[in-house]
């Protein structure tokens, strides 16, 4: 094989929301580490968030770069600097951002025509990339940012509509159908065989979708503290101080409470969380994203911040936390998670049992995976799906919060069993991304397949 045919060039097109962009950039970095020439298409504001790690990899000799586009803020009707779903303050603004991103479609299509990559890796939110890939005669790989269990459950519900034949809140999911994914070469999944093997199998055999499990990518791509801190460079003053605070705590004594990069809970809900955490008596780090219209003194009980700071019981981060670094710290003993797929994987990579508090998107499926299948989490008991910045009353009260925290952090038998199970998965995750591991083998298989498709085309 000549060096020209041997050199794969892949373009990655992420959706600019941390839960999709971070893992896709990490996936791209893993490809580059294994000899692929990688280009990631981002607008300037988003490139700024991830550029440091890309430059670091490029400086160590990997072929990786960003192709930077200007976001059409004026045309989209958005203030300058709003290029990522993390910066939107309400649902209308998120729809405007979504439309704004699609104003770039022609420009991106032209870029693919000019650059003629060997493969396009596209977020699911850009189905039109399938048409460009087909026109160019190159493979497209889809990226969904969720796990197999959620994907299989979604297909299953579409195919069998079990909710239509019952009045019960509980539905059984017997079997499952597809769209652009089926016409693509396949999907890249940020998961690993030892975690979701049976659902991986189900997706391939019953649904008939090809997929490569390449996870957990955060573990694979980020090897040192700087890389872990620079995964998404959204500034936060408290982020730097939190590690010092953790260093003063005993092993496994601190609970991490985070609801991802998008969710803004109603003030009443935040207030219940504050009461519940304080009443539990356990130490915690809480990443709070409030609505723009709420003030912190409406959100927190009177004197809460001062009490937490003086007693060193609670560390409150307003905005953005270096989540991967925090979760890996030995002082962290458990995690309250909104069941976002990346946060689940990051908790699992750190061997943490969890409190499952799903909010939106596919998170209620993920809750079931955590509590009923893997049995590494206790459910806090949320029953209602709500949009990520919807107004509303509290869905979980302070007593329920306190009870779940005491159960997870109080050294009970049930929590100890969950910890044992999640530690096994932690070990399996590490092995999956090492040479000889399942995800590593999948990447090698995929790279070889893409190379043979390239040779065939030539
Ligand atoms: N994240 C972070 N700091 C924060 C909030 C989120 O580093 O303060 C990262 C987190 O580590 C994860 C991603 O953002 O990699 C969030 O993805 P997830 O799927 O958990 O949830 P989403 O934000 O999409 O709801």
UniProtKB/TrEMBL annotation:
Keyword line: Coiled coil, Glycosyltransferase, Transferase
MF terms (GO), sorted A to Z: UDP-glucosyltransferase activity
Bilayer-spanning residue ranges: none
InterPro entries: UDP_glucos_trans
Residue ranges the record marks as coiled coil: 408-435
Pfam families: UDPGT
Family, per entry: Belongs to the UDP-glycosyltransferase family.
Protein name: Glycosyltransferase
Source organism: Rhamnella rubrinervis
Taxon lineage: Eukaryota, Viridiplantae, Streptophyta, Embryophyta, Tracheophyta
């Amino acid at each position: 094989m000549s060096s020209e045919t041997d050199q794969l060039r892949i373009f990655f097109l992420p959706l600019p929301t941390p839960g999709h962009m971070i893992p896709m950039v990490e996936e791209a970095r893993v490809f580059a580490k294994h000899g692929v020439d990688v280009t990631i298409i981002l607008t300037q504001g988003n490139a700024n968030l991830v550029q440091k790690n890309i430059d670091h990899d490029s400086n160590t000799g990997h072929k990786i770069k960003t192709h930077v586009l200007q976001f059409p803020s004026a045309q989209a009707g958005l203030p300058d600097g709003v290029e990522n779903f993390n910066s939107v303050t309400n649902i209308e603004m998120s729809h405007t951002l979504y439309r704004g991103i699609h104003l770039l479609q022609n420009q991106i299509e032209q870029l693919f025509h000019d650059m003629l990559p060997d493969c396009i890796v596209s977020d699911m939110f850009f189905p039109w990339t399938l048409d460009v890939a087909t026109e160019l005669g190159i493979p497209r790989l889809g990226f969904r940012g969720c796990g197999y269990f959620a994907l299989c459950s979604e297909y299953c519900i579409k195919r069998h509509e079990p909710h239509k034949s019952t009045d019960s809140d509980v539905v059984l999911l017997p079997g499952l159908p597809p769209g652009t994914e089926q016409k693509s070469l396949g999907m890249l999944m940020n998961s690993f065989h030892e975690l979701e093997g049976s659902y991986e199998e189900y997706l391939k055999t019953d649904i008939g979708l090809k997929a490569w499990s390449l996870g957990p990518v955060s573990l694979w791509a980020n090897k040192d503290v700087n890389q872990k801190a620079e995964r998404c460079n959204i500034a936060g003053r408290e982020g730097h101080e939190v590690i010092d605070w953790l260093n003063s705590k005993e092993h496994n004594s601190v609970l991490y409470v985070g609801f991802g990069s998008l969710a803004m809970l109603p003030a009443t809900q935040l207030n219940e969380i504050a009461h519940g955490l304080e009443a539990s008596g356990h130490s915690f780090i809480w990443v709070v994203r409030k609505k723009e219209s709420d003030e912190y003194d409406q959100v927190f009980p009177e004197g809460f911040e001062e009490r937490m700071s003086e007693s060193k019981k609670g560390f409150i981060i307003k905005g953005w936390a270096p989540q991967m670094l925090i979760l890996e710290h030995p002082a962290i003993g458990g995690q309250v998670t909104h069941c976002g797929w990346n946060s689940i994987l990051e908790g699992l990579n750190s061997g943490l049992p969890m409190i499952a508090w799903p909010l939106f998107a596919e998170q209620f499926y993920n809750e079931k995976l955590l509590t009923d299948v893997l049995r590494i989490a206790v459910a806090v008991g949320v029953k209602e799906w709500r949009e990520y910045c919807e107004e509303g009353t509290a869905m979980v009260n302070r007593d329920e919060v306190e009870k779940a925290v005491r159960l997870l952090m109080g050294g009970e038998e049930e929590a100890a069993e969950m910890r044992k199970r999640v530690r096994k998965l932690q070990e399996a995750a590490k092995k999956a991304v090492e040479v000889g591991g399942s995800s590593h083998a999948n990447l090698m298989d995929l790279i070889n397949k893409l190379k043979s498709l390239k040779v065939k085309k030539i």
